[in-house]
Amino acid sequence: MTEYYVPTGEGEAELVEKRSRFIGHVWPASSEEEARARIEETKKRHYDARHNCWCYLIQDGPVRYSDDGEPQGTAGQPMLNVFQREGVVNAVCVVTRYFGGILLGAGGLVRAYTQSAKDALDAAGISVVRRWVEILLPCSYAQYERVKLETESFGGVVAEADYGADIALTVLLPEEKAEAYLAHLLDVTAGTVEGMVCGERFQAVPLRPPVSSP
User: Fold this and answer.
1) Which of 4, 135, 138, 198: CA 20 to 30 A from 115?
2) How many whole angstroms separate alpha carbon 121 and alpha carbon 125?
3) Who's near 80: CB < 8 A, 6+ residues apart?
4) What is the pLDDT of residues 95-105, one digit of tens each?
5) Dist. CA 125–CA 91, nearest whole Å
């Protein structure tokens, strides 16, 4: 079974450390060309910054990073480590630094670039790409919250909801859990909620929603 994680969307976050301003940016990127274009676009936008450090990871493709003039090992690699720890691919990250006049030292730089990349990824959110079983599920308004919680407990998501006299839900479940999920729903709703498998999808579904900036 193929399963991997990607950024849900674009994310940006800002960090100020000893007057240096770090602006982290994350985008989805499905190719090296797309990643490089994002990096060049950011360098042009922040042409007056001291550093535009970057990294990218492409599924079954290249993994690259750059310290862009910072001491070796203090920027690009720590940024890359953030994505590798989360298992996120098809992602490009640029952290722009406007120097504030105070040296941070190697440890300070590693912490600042790591935090900037992490905050930008949190702002982008994380989605899981995999094969899902699509299930049509009618339920009453009174049952909706329970059904939603049970769906999430099986690793699924409510993809669509059509509100009428009752609610017609389209639910996506990991294929290996669909059968157990349907049986469980019948059990906990005393046979009143019965789903029907109507197909499969291979797509990205948000696993961790984007974090809004304060």
Assistant:
1) 4
2) 6
3) 55, 57, 63, 65
4) 999 998 888 88
5) 11
